[in-house]
């Protein structure tokens, strides 16, 4: 959004997910195959396969996937994104009835279950199935920079979006500010809401006065 429609963006913040410009010399699918951590995304490619596993017991799926990194919130089996296709599924080996996590339980968990019972998982999974078209779209902005104020919040315990993946973002985002939470995993806004809100509010309050908006609109 900040890259393609800057006239609509005052400032932009990202949690865990780094920005890297698309490289025309790279086949994004072949590149991702070189990272074992992303094997789960290739497990998602065949329509219907991951849906069958994730929708079999939506409560179990959510209780396994959405957990904090706190010791008392861990399950006996660690979620491993390596070798998902070889194992035959993302949730293979986990308990059939795991306890609810500390960051998604009670009425909130039931609401998530009800929503996914209605929608299923095809919508989110289709995003992973659209890698090449998304990459081609990104290539159209490969030389463009994100010029508005930006915030990058990294989390030390995120095993997929590791903080090291954000190195070099300053080259493409001149007004980048960084914050880091070491004791935090992938679900940053759920695991550390108070600390994250403090970071966001402090950053927003310190933004410079509004600059004149660009008059170009790409919609």
UniProtKB/TrEMBL annotation:
Signal peptide extent: none
Pfam families: Abhydrolase_1 (PF00561)
Organism of origin: Mycteria americana (Wood stork)
Official protein name in the record: AB hydrolase-1 domain-containing protein
Keywords: Hydrolase
Recorded superkingdom: Eukaryota
SUPFAM superfamilies recorded: alpha/beta-Hydrolases
Domain AB hydrolase-1 positions: 1-193
GO function terms (MF aspect): epoxide hydrolase activity
């Amino acid at each position: 959004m900040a890259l393609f429609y800057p006239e609509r963006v005052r400032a932009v913040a990202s949690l865990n997910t780094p920005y890297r410009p698309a490289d025309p010399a790279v086949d994004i699918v072949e590149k991702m195959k070189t990272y074992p951590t992303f094997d789960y995304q290739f497990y998602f490619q065949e329509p219907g396969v991951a849906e069958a596993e994730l929708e079999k017991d939506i409560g179990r799926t959510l209780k396994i996937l959405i957990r904090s990194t706190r010791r008392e919130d861990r399950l006996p089996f660690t979620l491993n994104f390596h070798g998902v296709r070889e194992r035959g599924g993302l949730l293979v080996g986990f308990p059939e009835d795991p306890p609810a996590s500390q960051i998604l339980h009670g009425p909130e968990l039931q609401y998530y279950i009800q929503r996914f019972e209605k929608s299923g998982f095809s919508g989110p999974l289709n995003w992973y199935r659209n890698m090449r078209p998304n990459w081609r779209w990104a290539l159209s902005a490969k030389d463009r920079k994100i010029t508005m104020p930006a915030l990058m919040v990294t989390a030390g315990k995120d095993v997929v979006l590791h903080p090291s993946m954000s190195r070099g973002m300053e080259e493409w985002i001149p007004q980048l500010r960084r914050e880091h939470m070491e004791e935090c995993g992938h679900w940053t806004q759920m695991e550390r809401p108070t600390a994250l809100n403090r970071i966001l509010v402090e950053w927003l309050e310190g933004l410079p006065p509004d600059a004149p908006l660009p008059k170009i609109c790409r919609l």
